[in-house]
Amino acid sequence: MSLLSDIVAAYKAPKREMRRHIDNVIAEEQTLFFAMLFGGFSFLAQLPDIAKRAHITEQSLSAMTAAQFIASVFMMPLLMYGIAAISHFICARFGGQGDHIGARRALFWAAVVTAPVLLLSAVLNTFVPDLRIIGAVITSVVFFWQWFSNLKELEFGNV
């Protein structure tokens, strides 16, 4: 299946899609790709705000863009690795049967699945800034729904 069809399938049945990832043997390379892909989407979603801030503060647009790119594509995946390790540690304390690479896949896949909502929210924020909070809430709800569904399937699917 293509990435887009996998994302659509994850909205229809997140646990089944995560089970498919688990059954296909989770590769670290693909998991890292998902983290960096989400970082790229996150960077794209923030470009309008970066341009606006650069214009208002009269700072260099290229410097602000470069800093945000490094933060989104390289630093965010590192932070996500830490969050995945903590989530696996917590689940293991409650009887979770997963592993560290699966916990990373659960988090990174949830982030990739949330990316279309994130990009849509960014477009909405650009044209209707008053809806910024609503977009952030919807994006957060979708992300946590996907992440917790993935973690539940990974850690407690065999219990």
Commentary on this structure:
The structure is a single chain. With 159 residues, the chain is mostly helical. It has one domain. The protein contains 6 helices and no strands. The protein is elongated, with a radius of gyration of 17 Å. The protein starts with a helix and ends with a helix. The model has no long low-confidence stretch (mean pLDDT 92).
What keywords describe this structure?
single chain; 159 residues; mainly alpha; 6 helices
Mean pLDDT: 92
N-to-C order of helices and strands: HHHHHH
Tell me, what's the shape? elongated
Helix content: over 70%
Strand content: under 5%
Low-confidence stretches: none
Biggest β-sheet description: none
Q: Structural class of the secondary elements?
A: mainly alpha
Report the strand count.
Answer: 0
Q: Give the C-alpha Rg.
A: 17 Å
Q: How would you name the oligomeric state of the polypeptide chains in this document?
A: single chain
In short:
This protein has 159 residues and is mainly α. It has helices at 3-12, 14-23, 28-57, 61-93, 100-127, 132-156.
Please write out the topology:
Layout: H1 3-12, H2 14-23, H3 28-57, H4 61-93, H5 100-127, H6 132-156
Helix pairs in contact: 1-2, 2-6, 3-4, 3-5, 4-5, 5-6
